[in-house]
Structures are given as structure tokens and as C-alpha cells.
Amino acid sequence: MFKALPLLALLFTVAPAHAAKRDADEQTHCRAVGQTLTRLGKAEAEVAALLKNKLGANASDKDKATVAQYQALADSTLALGQSLEATFSRAAPPSAVDLKALEGAGMDSLTEAAQACTQ
Question: What is the signed CA dihedral for 18, 24, 25, 30, rounded to 10 degrees?
Fold first, then answer.
């Protein structure tokens, strides 16, 4: 099972009040986490669409369920990323170095970083 449900739970806890509690560096980091999750969510959605097209109408129920789960992960990843970006939109844009460091992070690390931004 993909981590869509924890991401969905986080989505509803991101509020502008969280941004005000953070210093400038933390706000920039949270904005970078949001941008990274947004890019990742878009990429996951593309993969889900490619899988769906590749499997076609003759896909097994198990394959269809897997693609649906992956699409749910993509949707929740994208929504969380966009929510973080909107919440921390007034922060300074993250540097290319910061974004590059997050690109190599796994989904667990990004989920933990997003959760830290909401507390």
C-alpha cells in the first residue's frame, strides 16, 4: 500500500498560522519541501497515466487497483505540495542547492519534513 493516507491527513493540518511560527530559514525550507512534493506528485501522476495506458482495457483487477492506488498517492502528494507552497508562499525562494538536496530524499523523508512544517 502506498503512503497516500498519511499524506492526506497532513494536507488538512497545513494552515497559514504555521508559517508565522517559523523563522525565515524554516519557512524557506518548508517552501522547498512543498515545491519538491509538487514536482514529485506531477511525476507520479504521469507514471500512473502511462501505466494505465500501457495496461489498457485488458488489465487485471489487481493491476487496475494498483494503478488506482498509485494515482491516489500522486493526487495526495501533489495536493500536499501545493498546500505547503501556498502556506509558505511569502518565504524566500529556496536555493537550487536546497531543492537538489530534497530531490534525493525518499518519500518517507519528505513526508516527515512536511509533517514538521505543519507542527
Answer: 30
